[in-house]
Amino acid sequence: MYKTPYNVANNQSEIYEFMIQNTFVSLIGFDGNFPVATQISVETIMLGDSIKIIGHMMTKTDHCRAFEKNQNVLVLYTSAHAYISASVYENPRSASTWNYKSVQAKGTLF
C-alpha cells in the first residue's frame, strides 16, 4: 500500500465509518511458523477511545489454535475495488493502477 499523503486517511470518523460499513474482514495472525488467516463477519464498535472488533471463530481449528499461541492480530477491512487503465488519464503514459480502500487494524485478541 502506498502511504503517500493523498492515499492515507487521517480522519478517524471516516476510518471508523469505513470499518462499520465493511463487516466481512480477513483476520490475520502468526502461529510461530506460518501466517494464518480466516475471513469472518465482525461488528466494530467504539468504546471510549478504543475500537473493539467483535466476531466469532470456531474453536479447534488451525487458525484458532494459532491465535491461542499468539494473540497479536491484523484485521484487514476491504471494500469494492477496480482497475484503472492509464488510457483514462490526460497523460496516457501514466501507469495503470488499482483503485481500492482498505483499513488495517492491529491489536490483540481476548
Notes on the structure:
The chain is of the alpha+beta class and 110 residues long. It has one domain: Electron Transport, Fmn-binding Protein, Chain A (Pnp Oxidase, Chain A). It contains two helices and five strands. Strands 3-2-1-4-5 form a five-stranded antiparallel beta sheet. Strand 1 and strand 2 form a beta hairpin. The two termini are 28 Å apart.
Spatially, the strands of the biggest sheet line up as 3-2-1-4-5
Q: Which strand-content bin applies to the residues?
A: over 45%
Class computed from helices, strands and strand pairing: alpha+beta
Distance between the termini: 28 Å
Number of domains: 1
Largest sheet: 5 strands, antiparallel
Uncertain spans: none
Total strand count, please? 5
Supply database-style keywords.
2 helices; 5 strands; alpha+beta; globular; 110 residues; Pnp Oxidase, Chain A
Short description:
With 110 residues, the chain is an alpha+beta fold. The chain is built from 2 helices and 5 strands.
Describe how the helices and strands are arranged:
Layout: H1 12-21, E1 24-30, E2 35-47, E3 50-55, H2 62-69, E4 72-84, E5 97-108
Antiparallel strand pairs: 1-2, 1-4, 2-3, 4-5
